Amino acid sequence: MSDAPGRTVIENCAIATVDAHGTEYARGHLVLAGDRIESLGAGAAPEGLAGVVRRIDAEGHLATPGLVNTHHHFYQFLTRGLATDHNLFDWLTALYPTWARIDEAMCRAGALGSLAMMARGGCTTAMDHHYIHPRGAGDLSGAIIQAARETGVRFTLARGSMDRGESDGGLPPDFAVESLEGALAATEETVDRHHDASFGAMTQIAVAPCSPFSVSTELLTQSAELARRKGVRMHTHGSETVEEETWCRELFGMGPTDYFESTGWLGADVWMAHCVHMNDADLAAFARTGTGVAHCPSSNARLAAGIARVPDMLAAGIPVGLGVDGTASNEAGELHTELRGAVLVNRLGPHREAALTARQALRLGTYGGAQVLGRAAEIGSLEPGKLADLVLWRLDTLAHASIADPVAALVLGAPAPVTASFVGGRQLVADGRLTTVDEDEIAASTRSEARRLAEIAGE
Ligand SMILES: [Zn+2]
């Protein structure tokens, strides 16, 4: 085939494909062609391949699908390390007045910082649930999408919104919320301008009102109608804390899941962050409707929210992905450490050592994430024909060399260095450094924009 696209050959590594059979190779090869995985298997790559432009000897490495993040708030990169000893509602109340001062330059810095942290840690598909749009703040969605394009990470912007301010019984201050009509119009415009439904899309948009306690019933209902009219996915926060459960029962006379169902917010096109406080009927409703979950173990622990019933969700067939959540409630902002967090946190729950295996955690962070983002046909496992989104984790140094099993080394060991990561065949990380953007410049801009935000918020 003389017209074959340029091929990349990766050899001599362990491979965890995370396919439906959990196929693994102790020593194998991958061939990438253009933006796709062409072939993979045990042993060396076939000889005589035409058009090979790059050969990588991945001795001492584990190849996995790129990690897929399913819940994040990029702007929070500028408010890390604040309100460190609060539960969710107190934390929100402490931070909303600062968050309400963000502008386009701050959003850009926060997005670049978040994306860079995620990418150098093996994340190849990121998402940002951005729900704060102060009046006159500029084109925040455009700035965030531009940052994702510059880093080269595959990206879903969940265009968020809030219209229930303090005077309507909500948590955010009134000046931080949009009008019902304004939020819906801006969300529709963002979908029209930026959503790409094609195979291999680098930018997708989801409709994402923030949470029951910051959004009116009308905004929830009409957002669901908008998303389904446009054929895009829906995302929000749900059942995060006991306080939210109490708040919903007092205001609506029902728990969060029943409230979501009454507003059109359960379905195979919906994924929800947290889902910590779910009874058996709630889980059955998610399973019946195919509603997905973004499990955020570090954030749930940091905000003392509780332990999501992930083993029960998986047993019920609910799609579950992993999320770092915003870096104001998970200062690390890295997805590979959430693999470990998911195993450890869930083993503290009632299922104890049977709660979650290392391989199940890797599956949540890859294929599970692809499922909840609606992209399981494109990404999330290493299979011929899928997009070449993958990571080479270095496991032959002091931190991991003596750990018997490469998947256990990745999930339970210290955060593994990323030697290389690819998105659609394009290399984003080389020897632990980003190839697309300058990490040091980004670090400096996050520091100066964080300082500027603190000054404006303090006025
Ligand atoms: Zn969140």
Automatic annotation (TrEMBL):
Keyword Hydrolase applies: yes
GO molecular function annotation: 8-oxoguanine deaminase activity
First-level EC class: hydrolase
Signal peptide: none
Domain spans labelled Amidohydrolase-related: 63-415
Assigned keywords, A-Z: Hydrolase
Domain of life: Bacteria
InterPro entries (alphabetical): Amidohydro-rel (IPR006680), Metal-dep_hydrolase_composite (IPR011059), Metal_Hydrolase (IPR032466), MTA/SAH_deaminase (IPR050287)
Statement: the UniProt record of this protein carries the keyword Nucleotide-binding: no
EC annotation from Swiss-Prot or TrEMBL: 3.5.4.32
Protein name stated in the entry: 8-oxoguanine deaminase
